[in-house]
């Protein structure tokens, strides 16, 4: 009996425990925090017709560029609950707004899928993170689940299994096709309680969701979008309304009110159908710009008077509104009160826009600019949501964008900080007035997003996101803000003078800083860039799949990100076989679009190019594209390649063996040709500028998916083809013979004939020594050359007494595919196979050798040999491939391993946390260098930046929270890293990162919902639950066993036994 119970108990634990653990590992999506995480942002699964505009939009809540390594997007069929499509997002990145689009080619996505791919429902789309084997045909699972949406297009559809596994407690969402007359999507928005919700809306692929909450949509069918007053009857004036797309408007009255007297002086009924963008334009009938609804014939012009004046929309009809009478108190939909130099009647303001001031025009010339609503459809009766802008009648308003933005912060020296937390709007308006007074750049409250405040040591820290319409305007506003903070100043609030400063910290003092730390405390914001904007070649797509070659294009980009005149510019296409021009385009008379893009391409390219070419015009390579500027020189077809007037150039090929030496020599000297690898994508690919805005630099480009007239989709993968032979290890020592050995790796049997080992040293970029290579790669895939008089891996004695490492500056070892490189030759990337740049001085950059690759810092303190070894770390940047290690000639490299990982959860105090978010990547790289330097200084255990894995950070108030891992090569090194971590967090001394002062803080809690963090906590919690369940079961088993034992020891009374025996006898008879 006991054995049966034990077997049953073990079976129950086996079945139950994995479910308990899984429930702790995978949280309900409703309960997950979404700060700085990846979410499904918008889905259009059912578009009219043949489903040619369907898409899935992902959003990283940091609102900035983020890598998608480790994420999978899985599409499930509700009929069978199996995956019908799986997309691996490895190597993909969001755009600068945190958005990533997958969909039909018509929506210009980062990943193109064939039309009618996304099923209409009842189905599901799920986002996962992890190393599980997600594949088509698998059953639905919640293991590794990050986010999910179960959707349907019919109310009667059901998807019970998908809901139970992916979104328990939430029914499948209905994409109601009757919501819009054209098309609709399911978008994610913040609800009234600030929680994420889904709702049906107008599709906005690749842009911010409109997020007009249903309650607001029902409350007001139409709003005032744009207003252009006039000073005379000859000038054009208009009122633009915003409402649902392609919808008939009726029973709405437009009312104009005199701001001084509060009297109505004009009314008209509003009727008509809104445009596909939801706009309805009202204005004079006789005007160059056509209007949707003209003013009545007897209207006195101008109808829109200079301020103070008011515009109101009411429900009803115009017969209910009598000119000269007071305004009604009910039926108001929206209102806008504006003025130029005179305050409107206070009672009018309280009636139409309670609690809001009148909008001040402050215009230099009436008629040039309009007043545009820039929080449309989510805010009504609020003058603070309007900006002055270029008139855009019948089009979307010209509003400040997060594309041109920067976070600002400053300190108000107040003692009653908690009371000031309620005065965000008043503080914001003071900032607006200060900036406007400084730069006269027509800034208003709508330029500022997400105002926040927090109490710190000396007062209140106010933080907000400043947006602008262009890079130039942002620079002007940042200069005005810098002036605002240059010296402590007094600002007036409620008749009180308050001091404004950069920081509220009191414990960061210059005398406490250790030697070497800059004495300047970080400023509130970064100074605007002083570099001039320029025109560059941004993307080249010369080779398309198939034989049509009808989607070729060349994209130019003006880095000022605004409309740019191309007068004087020339685009020249060169043939690599004869180094002569085969097509020349004079760009004078053309201009870029509003975002700075200009496209030359085939007629089938979408969006349409500004200059259209016949199919198969752009040659596949080895060829070149060059951009020139000259108002005098006339570039012609069949001319020889020239560098005169050269602005930018790209030399490329789609077939590896082909070269274009003369084009490279003239256009991009010292560099190597780019390879458009057609295996990058199953559809089409291009060469895209990703790594820098430096002109004539081949390494700026990489192979990506095509993005004509759009932001390039860049990843960390290189555009250049990997070499057949690479440097695997370089062993160094501070002695008379600095190079102990060099190890090469490659495919076994690969010949080294024709290759040459070249040494560069010192501050100059010239060859110090070179050695011809011979032999073949051995069976292990390695080949070692001993350079200190010993025997190499192949038994060859190679001694180079005249080779010495540099005492200062950077040194490099490189492999070239050429037989002769004389000493003194300048470093070049031509014929370069592989290179390794290193330095003994941590502060020394690559300098003249930086084009060969990143520079690695090696400790040169003693004679102990140390190696730079090539290591493959899955989460490391591809730019960093070498790690410091112990020498391992002819053996597998000694590399950091995740088996010896040490978790990092660090917190640092900083006076301006927003700068860390704004310059996330740069600050993270700088912090990584500081951490490695501190670790190496304490333990001298041979670590480098490649040992840091999955390092990330986020700002919480005045804290910079950092998490990640430090990998080690062996247990002893792991223990040294743990000791350093403990000492580092206990250190009270501030230190500098990229010129910004940090102090360690003990207030650190491991970040939640970070994909890279292990599930050890969840596993422990699962074990606790399992142990509790097992304990309960054992207790029940013990009680049952005791009861059974008690019954056996105390049998039933004899009377019962006798009666039972009699019943048995009777039954037998």
TrEMBL record:
Show the stretches that span the lipid bilayer.
1025-1047
Q: Note whether Membrane occurs among the keywords.
A: yes
Residue ranges constituting the LTD domain according to the UniProt record: 522-654
> Per its UniProt record, what InterPro entries does this chain match?
Lamin_tail_dom
- What UniProt keywords apply to this chain's record, in alphabetical order? Membrane, Signal, Transmembrane, Transmembrane helix
Q: Which domain of life is it from?
A: Eukaryota
**Keyword Transmembrane belongs to the record:** yes
Please state the span of the N-terminal signal peptide per the UniProt entry: 1-22
Q: Read off the PROSITE patterns from this record.
A: LTD
Name-wise, this protein is LTD domain-containing protein
């Amino acid at each position: 009996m006991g054995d049966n119970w034990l077997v049953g108990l073990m079976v129950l634990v086996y079945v139950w425990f994995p479910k308990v653990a899984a429930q702790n590992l995978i949280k309900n999506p409703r309960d997950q925090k979404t700060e700085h995480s990846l979410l499904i942002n918008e889905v259009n699964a059912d578009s009219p017709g043949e489903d040619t505009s369907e898409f899935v939009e992902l959003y990283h809540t940091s609102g900035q560029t983020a890598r998608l390594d480790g994420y999978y997007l899985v599409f499930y069929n509700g009929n069978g609950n199996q995956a019908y499509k799986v997309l691996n997002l490895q190597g993909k990145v969001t755009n600068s707004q945190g958005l990533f689009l997958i969909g039909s080619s018509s929506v210009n996505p980062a990943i193109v899928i064939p039309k009618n791919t996304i099923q209409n429902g009842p189905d599901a789309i799920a986002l996962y993170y992890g190393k599980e084997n997600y594949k088509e045909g698998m059953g639905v699972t919640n293991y590794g689940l990050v986010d999910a949406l179960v959707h349907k297009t019919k109310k009667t559809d059901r998807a019970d299994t998908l809901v139970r596994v992916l979104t328990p407690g939430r029914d499948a969402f209905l994409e109601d096709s009757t919501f819009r007359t054209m098309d609709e999507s399911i978008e994610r928005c913040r609800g009234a309680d600030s929680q994420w919700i889904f709702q049906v809306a107008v599709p906005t692929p690749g842009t911010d969701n409109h997020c007009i909450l249903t309650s607001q949509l029902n409350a007001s069918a139409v709003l005032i979008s744009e207003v252009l007053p006039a000073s005379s009857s000859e000038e054009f004036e208009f009122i633009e309304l915003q409402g649902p797309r392609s919808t008939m408007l009726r029973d709405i009255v437009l009312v104009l009110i005199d701001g001084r007297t509060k009297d109505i002086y004009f009314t008209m009924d509003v009727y008509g159908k809104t445009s596909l963008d939801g706009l309805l334009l009202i204005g004079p009938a006789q005007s160059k710009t056509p209007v949707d609804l003209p003013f009545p014939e007897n209207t006195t012009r101008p109808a829109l008077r200079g301020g103070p004046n008011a515009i109101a929309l009411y429900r009803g009809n115009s017969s209910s509104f009598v000119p000269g009478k007071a305004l009604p108190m009910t039926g108001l939909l929206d209102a806008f009160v504006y003025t130029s130099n005179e305050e409107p009647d206070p009672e009018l303001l309280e009636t139409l826009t309670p609690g809001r001031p009148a909008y001040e025009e402050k215009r230099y010339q009436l008629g040039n600019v309009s007043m545009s609503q820039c929080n449309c459809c989510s805010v009504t009766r609020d003058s603070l949501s309007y900006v002055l802008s270029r008139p855009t009648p019948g089009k979307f308003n010209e509003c400040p964008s997060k594309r041109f933005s920067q976070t600002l912060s400053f300190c108000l020296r107040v003692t009653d900080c908690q009371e000031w937390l309620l005065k965000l709007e008043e503080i914001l308006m003071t900032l607006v007035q200060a900036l406007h007074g400084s730069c006269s750049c027509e800034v208003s409250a709508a330029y500022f997003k997400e105002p926040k405040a927090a109490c710190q040591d000396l007062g209140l820290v106010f933080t907000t996101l400043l947006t602008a319409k262009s890079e130039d305007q942002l620079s002007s506003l940042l200069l005005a803000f810098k002036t605002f903070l240059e010296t402590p100043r007094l600002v007036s609030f409620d008749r009180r003078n308050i001091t404004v400063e950069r920081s509220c910290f009191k414990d960061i003092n210059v005398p406490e800083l250790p030697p070497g730390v800059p004495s300047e405390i970080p400023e509130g914001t970064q100074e605007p860039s002083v570099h001039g904007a320029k025109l560059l070649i941004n993307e080249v797509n010369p080779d398309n799949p198939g034989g049509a070659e009808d989607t070729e294009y060349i994209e130019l980009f003006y880095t000022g990100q605004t409309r740019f005149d191309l007068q004087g510019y020339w685009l020249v296409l060169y043939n690599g076989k004869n180094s002569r021009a085969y097509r020349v385009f004079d760009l004078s008379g053309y201009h870029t679009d509003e975002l700075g893009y200009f496209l030359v391409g085939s007629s089938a390219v979408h969006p349409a190019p500004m200059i259209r070419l016949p199919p198969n015009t752009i040659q596949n390579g080895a060829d070149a594209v060059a951009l020139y500027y000259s108002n005098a020189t006339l570039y012609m077809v069949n001319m020889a390649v020239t560098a005169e007037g050269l602005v930018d150039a790209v030399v490329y090929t789609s077939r590896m063996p082909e070269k274009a030496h003369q084009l490279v020599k003239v256009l991009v000297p010292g560099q190597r040709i780019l390879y458009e690898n057609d295996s990058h994508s199953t559809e089409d690919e291009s060469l895209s500028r990703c790594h820098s805005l430096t002109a004539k630099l081949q390494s700026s480009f990489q192979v990506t998916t095509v993005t004509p007239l759009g932001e390039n989709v860049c990843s960390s993968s290189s555009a250049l083809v990997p070499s057949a032979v690479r440097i695997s290890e370089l062993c160094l020592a501070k002695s008379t013979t600095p190079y102990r050995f060099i190890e090469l790796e490659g495919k076994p049997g690969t010949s080294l004939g024709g290759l040459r080992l070249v040494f560069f040293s010192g501050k100059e970029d010239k060859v110090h020594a070179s050695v011809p290579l011979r032999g073949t790669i051995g069976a292990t895939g390695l080949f070692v050359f001993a350079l200190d008089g010993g025997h190499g891996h192949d038994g060859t004695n190679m001694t180079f007494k005249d080779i010495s490492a540099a005492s200062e500056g950077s040194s490099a070892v490189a492999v070239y595919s050429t037989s002769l490189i004389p000493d003194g030759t300048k470093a070049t990337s031509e014929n370069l196979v592989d290179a390794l740049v290193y330095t003994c001085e941590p502060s020394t950059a690559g300098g003249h050798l930086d084009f060969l690759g990143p520079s690695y810092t090696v400790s040169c303190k003693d004679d102990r040999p140390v190696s730079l070894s090539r290591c493959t770390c899955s989460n490391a940047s591809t730019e960093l491939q070498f790690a410091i290690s112990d020498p391992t000639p002819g053996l597998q490299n000694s590399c950091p391993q995740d088996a010896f990982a040490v978790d990092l959860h660090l917190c640092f105090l900083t006076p301006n946390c927003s700068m860390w978010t704004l310059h996330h990547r740069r600050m993270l790289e700088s912090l990584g260098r500081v951490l490695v330097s501190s670790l190496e200084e304490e333990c001298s255990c041979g670590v480098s930046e490649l040992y840091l894995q999955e390092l990330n950070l986020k700002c919480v108030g005045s804290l910079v929270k950092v998490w990640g891992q430090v990998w080690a090569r062996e247990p002893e090194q792991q223990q040294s890293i743990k000791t350093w971590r403990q000492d580092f967090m206990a250190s009270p001394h501030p230190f500098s990162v990229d010129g910004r002062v940090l102090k360690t803080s003990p207030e650190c809690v491991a970040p939640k919902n970070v994909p890279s963090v292990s599930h050890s906590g969840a596993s422990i919690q699962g074990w606790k639950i399992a142990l509790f369940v097992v304990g309960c079961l054992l207790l029940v088993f013990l009680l049952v066993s005791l009861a059974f034992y008690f019954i056996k020891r105390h049998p039933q009374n004899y009377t019962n036994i006798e009666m039972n025996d009699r019943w048995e006898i009777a039954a037998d008879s």
